[in-house]
Amino acid sequence: MDFGRLITAMVTPYDKEGEIDWEAASRLVDYLIEEQKSEGLVVCGTTGESPTLSDEEKLQMFSFVLEKAAGRCKVIAGTGSYNTKHTIELTQKAEKIGVDGALLVVPYYNKPNQEGLYRHFSAIAAETSLPLILYNVPSRTGICMSADTTIRLAQIPNIVATKECASLDHVALIAAGCPDDFHVYSGDDSSALPALAVGGHGIISVASHLEGARMDEMISAYLSGDVQHAGKVHRELFPIFKGLFECPQPLPNPSAVKYALELRGIKVGSVRLPLTPPNEAEAEFIRKLVL
Questions:
Q1: Domain containing 17: what range?
Q2: Location of site Part of a proton relay during catalysis (predicted)?
C-alpha cells in the first residue's frame, strides 16, 4: 500500500455548538484534495481531536470522508489508543466501512516498555487486514518507540508505514533497517525535506492545510532531482512550519491551524474543551504568520 507522499492530518470541523459540521467537512475534503494536493487524509487523528470524539462520531467521520473523497485520495482512520482491545474493535469497524488504512498512535501515559509496544501493535495487526501506519510521537505520549522496535514491527505484513516524530536519526535508522516497501513518514513539517534526504517517503502534515500545494511542489522538485528548488520552497515555508508548532505553548494543538484556516476563509470552527481557542497574543501571532 502506497498512501502517497503528502498526507494531511485533517482537522475536524465543528459548528458553534461544538458538534461536527458536516457541510464544512465536505468543503474541507474538497479543498484539501483539489487545492492543497493531499494524496491521503488522516481522519480523526490527534489533529482531528480524537480524544474528544466518541466512537460513533469517529465512525461517522470515516464513512463521510470516504464517500466524499470518492477515490480521489486515500482515507486513513485514526483508530489508535492506549487500550489494545478497544483499538482492535475500532479498527475492525473502520475496516468494515472500507477505509484504506489506519493510523495507530503509540500508547500514552502509562509508558509501556518496548516489548509491550511490540505486543500492542502486533495484536492489532493480527485482528485486521487493513494496512497499518504506526505513529511515534514521544513529546506527547511520554514514551519513544525505538527504531529497533519499529523495524521489528515492520516485518509484520500489514504494518506498512510509520509516522515518525522522534528525530531524523530515527527516520534514517528505520529507513535503513526496514523492508523497501515499508514507508517512513515525517510527522514534523519542518523535517519533511530533510527526511526525504535520509530515506523518508513523505510527510503526514498539519501545515498542508495551508500550504499543501507548495509542499507538493517541494517534494516533487526533490524527487525529480531539483534539490535547489526544493530547498528554496522549504526555506520559504519554514516560518509556517515552525510557527504552527510553536503556538500555542507549551505544545501546539489544533487550535492554531483551525484559526489559521478561518483567517484564510476556510470555515472549520473552533476546538472542543479541554482545548481552547487562541488567546489575543496567539491570535495576533497566527495572523502575522499566515496573512
A1: 6-225
A2: 46, 109
